[in-house]
Structure prediction request, 413 residues.
Amino acid sequence: MKPQAGFIFTAILWASFVAQAADEWPQFLGPNRNGVSAATGLLDSWPAAGPKEVWRVTGGAGMSGIASAGGHLCTLVQHDGQQWLVAHHPATGKQQWQTTLAPEYKNTQGDGPRATPTIAGERVFAFTGQGILTCVNLATGSQMWSHDVVGELKGKVAEYGMACSPLLVGDLVIVTVGAPKACLIAYKAQSGERAWTAGDDPCGYSSPALLNVGGRQQIVAFTGGSVIGVTSDSGKVLWRHPYETDYECNTASPIAVDGNVLISSGENHGSALLKLNPNGDKFDVAEIWSSQGPRSVLRSEWQTPILLDGKLYGLDNIGSAGPITNLTCLDAATGKQLWQQPRFGKANMIAADGKLFFTSMTGELIIVRATPKGYEEIGRKQVSGPTRQAPAIADGKLYLRDDKEIICLDIRK
Prediction:
């Protein structure tokens, strides 16, 4: 019997996505959506002039991160009254194409799109500041389908803008929208046809992840009022754990810790490690550890913590969106603090080759060795203007951006 076209498309799309894991950065937080790259051979000591700059090109406003795969470097920028999905050549920075997605998005917390595009096979998926989800051909930039998700579901744009980076699971692309009875929505990646909706929470600002937790693979979303787990095929809600924060500011993505779920939120809230106990076809939720309030060990404002060898590295924001941010290392299983670097400053981070790579709100690139023994800085350098975006690593290069430029640095030994 001849396989159906939809099955073939799904297999090709998923196989290409998995194949990218070794040396590309195809989506928000990298190949496995956990902020960790498999890259090795990266610099161990700080060059006299800092990492070599390979290229620097004009970009635009926005908080979108960078995705790199299939010979294209993609991000969302805002200029000339529009939000654009742009593609550049990773080696040279030369612009390959730009596609307009929506009118400009303005907000008191910063103008421009917030979400990072997702590259999968021959397609790129992008989500604008006002909640328009678009599928674009990677080679040409031509639009394949588009949905005004917030408008179609009669929802409302989040107070600080729609920030969910699209998640690809099989032949489905999923975003958090927070509309009535549609906290999450899934579309068929090939056609743009709606597949399912799930949940009834406000959207928050976090991006969902596909995690293997509670003994099964499931989509876990940190919403504006809870963390939920849903099936990828139908969107059935498997469990819900309330977690309300001021202004619905749950922003960091959930991560898996030894089969359990870790969530962390700023605005003077905290972190919790959740165990999922099977109960029929659903789960009961219990806290393994929880650290909340002004004395919490970790309050991740908009930076997803990094898990390496059982240790959590996170940026702990002190106060209600306050200016003081400490870098901290915890034992993930217990929540016990192993060390802290006070007043490290607001930044975002990823990890590779036993090191943490930070881009700070002041425009510094900072590299720190990832060790539970204590803070060990390899070096730092001013490389950009103010930025909230985490960098991306692909093929020995580190890519970062601010509201004006996109920059490529060589970080190989």
User: Anything to note?
Assistant: The first strand starts at residue 36 and ends at 37.
